[in-house]
Each structure stands twice: as structure tokens, then as C-alpha cells.
Amino acid sequence: MTAVIAATNLSKWYGNVLGLNDVTLEIEAGITGLLGPNGAGKSTFMKLITGQMKPNIGTVTVRGRKVWNNPTIFAGIGFCPEHDVFFEDVTGWEFVTGLLRFYGYSGSVIKERAARALDIVELTKDKDRLIRGYSRGMRQRVKFAQAIAHDPEIIVLDEPLSGLDPLGKRKLIKLIKAFRDEGRTVLVSSHVLPEIEALTSRIVLVHQGKILAQGDIPYIRELIEAHPHMISVRSSDPRALAACFVGDRSIQKMSFSPDGRTLVVETHKRDDFFGRLTGAVLEGGIEVEEISSPDDNLQAVFEYLVGK
Amino acid sequence: MATIREKGYTHWDGKLTERRFPWWPITRTGIQLAFRKKRFKFVFAGAFVPSFAFLASLYASERLEDFKAIVQSKEALINITPKYFNAYFTLPFFLFLILLVLAFAAAGLIADDLKHNSLQLYFSRPLRKKDYLLGKMSVIFFFVLILTAVPGLVFIIFKLIFAGSFKFFLDYPWLPLSILGYSALLTVFFAFYVLLLSAWSKNTRYIMVLVFGVYLFSIILHGILQSIFKTPFVALVSILANLRQAGAFLFGQKLPFAVPAIWSFAVLAGICVLSAVVLNWKTRSVEVIK
Amino acid sequence: MNARKSIGEIFGFFFFLGRRTGKTRVFALLGLVPVVLAIVVRAALHGRSGDMAAVFTEILMVFFLQFYIVILSLFYGTSVVAEEIEGRTLSYLITRPLPKPAIVLGKYAAYALLMFLMVAVSLSLSFFILNAGRLADPSLYLKFFGYLGVLGLGILAYTAFFTFLGAVLKRAILVGLVFGFGWENVIQYFPGSTQKFSIVHYLKSVLPYRPTGGGGGRLALLLFKLEPTAPAVAVLMLAVVAGVLLALACWFFRMKEYLYEE
User: Fold this and answer.
1) Residue A133: its chain B contacts at CB < 8 A?
2) What is the mean pLDDT of chain B?
3) Are A67 and A51 contacting, i.e. CB atoms less than 8 angstroms apart?
4) Residue B39's pLDDT is what?
5) Per-residue pLDDT tens for A55-68?
6) Looking at the complex, does the CB of residue C123 fall below 8 Å from at least one CB of chain A?
């Protein structure tokens, strides 16, 4: 698949502080989650790909075209900034229509697009109210509306879910997924792991200005050989089950949950373990209620990668 | 009731005690923030230029023969009397420099708190409104007193040192009190004036313009009204004129305008009262959004 | 979208926004001060038209030329760039298909027009109130447009300078204050060619008023120590200064990165 956004040896300094450290990355169509703690370099990367900052070293391109001082590419990009800021004393309608003027649309097209965007974010009823009277969630939605009103092919969202209540988050996540289904490219940043997990399985992990890992969550998990996989098996007789594996050298560690009903195993050879588990269950007649991988999630992956 | 096993953050388990001077951390932070601004140090240092110039002339007054040729025309600067001190403290350029320092250091004192909704953070601490305002004012007190009282008292000390006798002090024993009194007046007035404007808007740049704009407008208005009506009472509209009147009164000099000094004090006090009312109204812990 | 259309759209958006802010209302109210003074003077001088004309040219023009247009230009000129950085709304503009210089030029034009309207209303009212007894005189209207033209030129030149400062410096307002109310006030009274290093010198050189032989009487403050430049040269200089500074502002805005203060 051709890269929509490509960064090559991208580095950015703020004085003596390194914001982004030799990043080479390609982002394809679909939803890509940019994940990292505060200060990791996510916003720096987003500002570089939206032309708000100039790289010190390296290049960043969108559809093969350089970004810095190239305003024509923004006809196809929508950006939702992180900061909760707006022009002074404007209503939601004026905000969206005002920014739509800069695309060269006619008056009727502006009105139609603005109405559609505000309808998508469910702000039609409140469009004539001043933005400073909006709730936090409404302000976030109107920011999103201005990012999508001109039907961009690429949408860059910097912490779009911050400040939203759970219902608001669900709605926005659904919206973002709908954009993906239309074939658009969406780049979303967040420091909240469950939000990214809910949006996409394709993530880029950023920490201290570097890309730690890129890919989908299970794929990244597979790469982390240093850490054994954790598998949790809830059964009627976990101790009998444990006895089946005590002699197995691929098992690093076994423990029991506080309620005594779950066996937690750490192993480097996950597939082998599942094969032997099947055999042990059949031979021993042990009833298995649930099998899960507690560390096959973004939190655990991230913690392993940053060494916390 | 379920217990919380993991808070994810740590509480400080010590006992909270009330500070003796609750306004002091605000003042200290305000001063530190001012000095962190890149060009502020330059501006602040520049504001001392008149004091160094006056100090130089103070030295020259003791070495008149050496400087005769240069200073023949500058009578007010070489005869060191209370008039000399009045000239320094009411010099329009000096007051302009004080305003420049305050525009830099103090314009955002309340405006930034309004912009970032910090008032709620302040008042959720054991801090009263008067501590908050005193803390903010003390930032202005610091800068203005350093530019007024300190040089004024240093002038007296250096005069005594250069003269080699206490004659000057014995001739004018009330002069240090005048210096302190007028410095206090300038300090308190500018504190109320700048904070009144700082509380007016969340936009610091706009406030900087207002700090100068209101001051200069009052001077221009005085000039215009004086030209039209030719009465000295129009001087009361000018902040500079009122400060000069007050200074002349406190230093025992002839008043620059034929208006009783009490009226100038009343105008300056009126601005301070207006400021106090506005500050009390604006520094609420809850913001009302219409 | 081409550059001209971009400038037009930016102009429209910010003219619309600028009209509505509280600060514009405050500045517009400030412009009513000479109007009130004109009414008061008219009542006080009982219609002595010669005196009232003198009040306008020698007193109120000081207000307009050395205070009102300077303070307006300082605020709005620095706002062209600084407002977007302080308010963090720059992201909304530079992530649109707009050439960056169009943002500067469009905002400059919007604010210049806004200021011109405020000044024009104030000037018109105060001028015609004070000259109400001479409305039949056609030369009066020439003088009026002359004054309006001078103030318009002043707005264009000062705003261009402050726009440039705002594009280049972080604390442009302070440098602007020192220039507008320090340098401009002081240097114009220096004899010789040092006067030419100020915008106000060229503005005064094109004023449609010259003092009579006696030096303009007691109130010739505006023209005190003025060694005027030829009006055509003065207008050209103002246009060149405005043009060069705007071009530099556009260039800096295009090349510079603006980081928000965290």
C-alpha cells in the first residue's frame, strides 16, 4: 500500500531539547493511532505533518508532496488541534462557515457543508450560540466539525477525545470509524490507551521523541521476545492443571489468583502451551471456563517497551 | 463500602498550616516571572538611567568648579535642594519608564489569571481575596519602590558622602520622609492603576496598550482642554499633572498648577477607590458565562 | 484558491470579527472624545468660526495624529500576527490552503479599514461640528479630505510598521510603545534630517495646513520645529515605508515558525 504520509529521518529540536528523534515512518490509509505519554513527541509530529513547524532534519511528505510552506496540500487535509481555543466571540455556525471560506467555495456550498458537518457532530441545535457558552464536549465537537467540513481525504486529530464524556467519546469513535470505512486516512493521537484500542489496532508507539514500535497490537506483542506471554486459565481445578505443566521447561512461572480458581502462566512459547493445554484438558477431564491473555493489550505492550 | 486499593497518585500526609503572610508566594512568583521575560531585565535596567543621571549631577554639584563649563545652564540639577528631588521624582520621562517596567512586569498579573481561570485555583486554597490582591500589588510595590524610594534615599546618602558633612540633612531633616511619602504615593497609585487595567481584560497585549494609552490620553486631554478653556483646573484630568502636584506638595515646592494640592490627592485617591471596587468585583472565584 | 481571493476571504473574515469585539467598541468610544470636545468648544466659543477652526487644526489634530492613530495602529497592527499566536488560533489559518502572506495582508487590510472607519467617523463629526459655520465654503471639504488622507496614510504606515514588529518580535507591543510614544514624540523636534527618521514627520509634511507668518501662534504644537519634506515626496516615502515593511512582515511570517507558549 502506498504511504499517504511519509516521514524520513525526521528530527525536531526546541532549543536544546530534542522533540522528535530521527523518525522514519509511513502512514497508510485507515486509522492510525499515535500513542505515547505527555511529552513523547506526538504533537510535535502532528505539527510537522500539518506544516505548522519546519523539520530541522529530514522530510515529511503528504502524498509525495512536501508540507512546509505548501498550502495547496491543505485542501485535502483536516486538522483538529489539541488546544481548546477559538476565535473570539463567534458562534459555532460562524466558526465553521468562516473557516470554510478559505477553500474557495461559493456561499451556498459553504452553508451546505457547514450544516452537514454540524449535523454530523450533533450541534445543529446549538449552532447559533456563542462558542464560549458551549460545554467542553461541544467545543471539542465543533473543532471536529471544522476539521471535516471540507471533506478532506486526510484527517489529523490531536487528542480528539479529551474532555468528552463516555457517550461523546463513543459517538466520536463511531464517526472516526465511518471516515475510515469511506477510505479516508485518519491519524489520531492520544495518551489514553483504551481510547486508541477502541479506535484502531494499528498503532505507532512514541516515547521520548522516538518511534518504539509500529504495527497492530498482537504483532507488536509478538515482537517483544524479552517478555514471556501471560496466559490466564480459569478452571474447576487449576492445581491439577498446574501439575500438568510443572515439568515443562518452556513455562517460566506459574501462579494462582487470590480466589484460587485461575491459573496464570508465563511462557515464551505460547502456541506450544495452547497445544499442551488442549491435551491436558482432554486427558485430565478438567473443566476450563475461560482463557485470556492479560498482557495482550496496549497497556502491557507499552509498559514492556518503555521498560516501566 | 469498597476500599481504594490503588490511588495512582500520592497525597501529602502532613498537616496544612496557615502561612503568616499568605500573599508572599504570589508576590515572589510574580517577581520571578517578570525577571524570566527576556527583555525585561534590559527595560528594568534602563529605568535606572534617570537615577544615575541625577546621581551624576549630585556628584557634579560638589565639584562645581570642575564642571562649571558644562553645567552652567542646568541650575536645577546642580543646586541640591528638595527641588532637585522633586525634579527627579516628577520627571515625565522617569514616570514613563516606570510605566514601561510595569507594562512589562505587571500587565498580566490579573489578566493571565482570568485567561487561564486560575482564580478558582487560588481561592480553593486558604487564601482570602485581600491576600491575593495584596500579593499581586506587592509585585508592583517591589518594582516601583526600587525605582523610587531606594534611589531617593541613596541620593541623600551620597550627597552626605560627597559633601563630607551632615549639613544637607540638618538643613532638610524632613526630606527622607518626603521621599518615602512620595514613593509610597507613586507605589500605591501605580499598583491600583495597573491592576485596575489588568483586571479589565484577559488580553495582556491590550492591557499594555491601555496602561500607556490611558496615561497618555489624560496628558493630551489636559493639553487640549488647557488650550481651549485656559483654566488651571483642567490639570486635574491629567494623571501626570496630579502626580506632579502631589510631588510638589510633598517636597514643599511651588505647585506647578494653580489648583489646591488636595484636589490632586482626591483625584488620585478616586482612581484608587475605583480600582478597589473593580478589583473586588472582578476577582471572583466563579466565572459567569452568558 | 489564488492569492488575491485568499486575501479577500481573510479580509472579509477578520473585518467581520474585528467589528464585533469589545476592544473595537472601546477604541471607537475613544474616538468620540474629540466629538464631545468639539460640541463643548462650539458652545464655549459661541460660534467664533476662526477660533473653532484653529481649535481643530491645532488641538484636535494633535489628538488624532499623535495619539489616536498611533494607539489604534499599535494595537491592531501587532494583532495581525500576535493575536493568532496568543490565542493559539494560528493553527486554524495555516492548515488551510492559504498562502501565508495572504493571511498577513488580508488581516492588515481588514484592520486598516476598521481603524480608518473609526477615525473617519470621529474626524468627520468633530471637523464639521467645529466648522459648521463654513459649510458653504468648498475649500473646507478639500481641507477635510486632506486631513482624512493624512490620517489614512498614517494608519497605513503605522500599521505596516507594527505588523512587521508583530511578525518578528515576541513582545512587539513594548517596542511599539517605545517607538510610537517615545521615538515618534521626541525625534520630530530634533532639528535637521534626524526628523526624517520618523513616520510622523512625513505625515505632518502633508497636512493641509501651514501656520501663518507668525509661526502658527501659541498653539502650533503640531508643526513646532517641523522642517517639512515636499508633500509628494512625503506621500511616496510613506507608501514605500508601508510597502517595504509589509513585504518584510509577509516574508518573516512565511519563513518563521511560531511556537505557542506552554
Assistant:
1) 289-290
2) 85
3) yes
4) 79
5) 998 999 999 999 99
6) no
| 3.40.50.2300, 3.40.50.300, 3.30.930.10, 3.40.50.150: CATH of A5-222 | 3.40.50.300
Tell me what pLDDT residue B6 has: 45
Q: pLDDT exceeding 90 applies to what percent of chain A?
A: 43
> Would you say A75 and A150 are in contact if contact means Cβ atoms under 8 Å apart?
yes
* pLDDT per residue as tens digits for the range B1-60: 444 444 444 455 556 667 778 888 889 889 988 888 877 888 888 888 888 888 877 877
CA nearest to B248, candidates B56, B50, B55, B88: B88
Give the model's pLDDT for residue B5.
45
Residue B287 belongs to a domain: no
Q: What is the ipTM of this complex?
A: 0.87
Burial C36-46 (b: 16+ CB within 10 A, else e): ebbeebbeebe
pLDDT of residue C221 exceeding 80, the answer is no
Domain ranges of chain A: 5-222, 224-306
Whether chain A has a CB inside 8 Å of the CB on C191: the answer is no
CA angle, C172 as apex, C170 and C176 as ends, to 5°? Answer: 170
Does A65 touch chain C if contact means CB atoms closer than 8 Å?
Answer: no
**pTM of the shown model:** 0.82
So what's the pLDDT on residue B67? 59
Count up the domains in chain B and report the number: 1
Compare all CA atoms of chain B with the CA of A132 and give the residue at the minimum distance. B289
| Cβ-Cβ contacts under 8 Å, B289 against chain A | 132-133
- Strands in A229-235's sheet, in edge-to-edge order, are A251-256, A262-267, A229-235, A288-292
| Grid coordinates given for A222 | 509478538
User: How many whole angstroms separate alpha carbon B56 and alpha carbon B155?
Assistant: 10
Instruction: Compute CA A60 distance to the chain's CA centroid, rounded to the nearest angstrom.
Output: 20
Q: Does domain A224-306 have CATH number 3.30.70.100?
A: yes
Q: Which chains touch C (3 or more CB pairs under 8 A)?
A: A, B
Calculate the CA dihedral of residues A160, A165, A169, A171 and round it to 10 degrees: -120
Least confident of B126-135, B193-202, C25-34, C211-220: C211-220
How many CB contacts within 8 angstroms connect chain B with chain C? 72
Q: Which three cell numbers stand for residue B121?
A: 485555583
Band the pLDDT of A183: cuts 50, 70, 90: confident
Q: Does A107 touch chain C (CB under 8 A)?
A: no
The answer to the question of residue B191 being in a domain is yes
pLDDT over 60 at B228, yes or no: yes
In terms of phi and psi (left: phi > 0; alpha: psi -120 to 50; beta: otherwise), the region of A163 is left
